[in-house]
Specification:
alpha+beta; 3 helices; 2 strands; 12% strand
Length: 82
């Protein structure tokens, strides 16, 4: 998507252009995730933020590993020792 500019309004508010809102799939009242990265501000939908976080974690988890299953196994093992 093309670059655009906007102005900072009263109380630090910014207006996202309609094309950007459509691209993000957000409407008025939706929650957005803001990430400050060095000198840039990244704005994304919560769903996009979750996908991003999952991709970051997946880098460190072997393929086919399910963390929830491992956590449950750990909890069961701890409970068995009590």
């Amino acid at each position: 998507m093309a670059e655009t500019t906007t102005r900072l309004g009263v109380n630090g508010r910014i207006v996202l252009p309609a094309a950007y809102r459509r691209a993000l799939g957000v409407v008025q009242g939706d929650e957005l995730v803001l990430i400050l990265e060095e000198d840039a501000l990244r704005i994304m939908s919560p769903a996009a933020a979750i996908k991003r976080a999952q991709a970051l974690v997946r880098q460190y988890i072997p393929e086919g590993t399910r963390l929830a299953d491992e956590l449950l196994a750990d909890r069961r093992a701890e409970a068995a020792h009590e």
